[in-house]
Design goal:
Helices cover 17% and strands 44% of the residues. With 228 residues, it is α+β, with helices and mostly antiparallel strands.
């Protein structure tokens, strides 16, 4: 309604919107036929602006979105992250922790959406690792200074918050790869997580570990399906 009103009389939307607001207020009052209401001047007819209309104008202007100025346009590389937006459910298996042990299962419930400035794709995870519950927030972005994708994960339930996960991420075609490393008691190990998007609604995920980045062992295999 405001858009249509604003296109009339030279696009003077704030005045006409305020005028309609005042007229409606008079119609709703118990004494709608009072002289006070009937003689309320239109803002187009009066050179004075009553306090009520000043308040209305202020509310309209304050409600308008404010965007940062002086910043570069969004990097085109961010567009590649858009495939992950939405609601995804993952299922799969994990390798036994010990030789001859029993394989585990996992379920990930992922909800992804863009930040208001469209710079960060944020995903909340509710994960079930063979009965162990974990909840985290994942943030993916493109860094214009590093010229690289970055992947971050912060934990709220099921894992310590002291060491959030951070990794550079590469996107080549339909394959996303995150790489990380750990140093436990002076012994390094490396981790590689890959996502292959076979379509806009289906992705496979694999986690591999290595002591030397030469020989890799798969510890997780699964599939994600985008929910309607």
């Amino acid at each position: 309604m405001l858009k249509r009103m604003g296109t009339e009389n030279g696009g003077n939307m704030p005045l006409l919107a305020a005028d309609a607001f005042v007229r409606d207020a008079c119609m709703d009052r118990p004494k709608a036929g009072s002289v006070e209401c009937l003689q309320t001047p239109s803002p187009l007819q009066s050179s004075r602006t009553p306090p009520m209309r000043i308040a209305i104008f202020s509310a309209l202007f304050l409600a308008a979105p404010v965007f940062a100025t002086g910043f570069p346009p969004l990097a085109p590389e961010l567009k590649a992250l858009d495939v992950q937006a939405g609601h995804w459910i993952y299922h799969g298996t994990t390798a036994p922790k010990k030789e001859g042990g029993k394989a585990g299962t996992f379920t990930w419930d992922e909800q992804c959406g863009w930040s208001d400035d469209k710079l960060f794709l944020m995903c909340s995870f509710d994960n079930d690792w063979s009965g162990h519950k974990l909840q985290s927030l994942v943030v993916d972005t493109w860094n214009t200074r590093d010229k690289s994708y970055w992947h971050y994960e912060m934990f709220a339930v099921g894992s310590s918050g002291a060491k959030p996960f951070a990794s550079r991420m590469s996107i080549r075609g339909n394959t996303w790869t995150e790489s990380g490393e750990e140093d436990a008691h002076g012994k390094k190990s490396y981790e590689r997580i890959s996502y292959v998007y076979h379509s806009p609604t289906e992705v496979t995920v694999k986690i591999e570990i290595s002591p030397d980045q030469k020989q890799w062992k798969t510890t997780l295999d699964g599939t994600g399906v985008k929910q309607p």
